[in-house]
Amino acid sequence: MNARVVGMTRKSRTLESTKLMQLRKAIPEDCKAIFVWRNIPAIVALSRSGKTVTWEEHCRWFQSILSRDDSLLFIVSLKGTPIGQVRFDREDDRRFEVSIYLIPQYTGQGLGVLALKKACRQAFRRLNAFEIRATIRADNIHSISAFKRAGFVQSESSNANSEFQILSMKRKPKKT
Description:
Blueprint: H1 10-20, E1 21-25, H2 31-38, H3 41-46, H4 55-67, E2 71-78, E3 81-90, E4 95-102, H5 111-127, E5 131-137, H6 141-149, E6 153-154, E7 164-170
Parallel strand pairs: 4-5
Antiparallel strand pairs: 1-2, 2-3, 3-4, 5-7, 6-7
């Protein structure tokens, strides 16, 4: 979808994107696509490790993620085309770490914000999470901005002088 469609407001583009974006749990057949995406130089540059992974390392990690019930890995699709992933890993009893990336041609259009919102709603429900945290490179201002637009706030444990910023979102209380 072209985010610059003439005659569409930002709100109408967002509503249209919301309808066209899907999340689904990753399956074994997604292994190769995620490996390719994970090693795209732009994605590697913004990752915590800053390093590529080998096929063998990736396969071990991928099998582990799919077999664990304390993690959740989603494939993000737009109009049926896979464009990225969102992953949740347990940190402790009710807190999970989130990681997301979209392939470069789909960034900068607000799609990451939509994917985060949808995925976090699923994580709160499926994993019984109380809090979701993101650890983001401090120089990754676009990601920090996207997380804040998705409803994340600066964590009290974030240090302004740190190489990373920690943002979090807590489960909203159920309405009575």
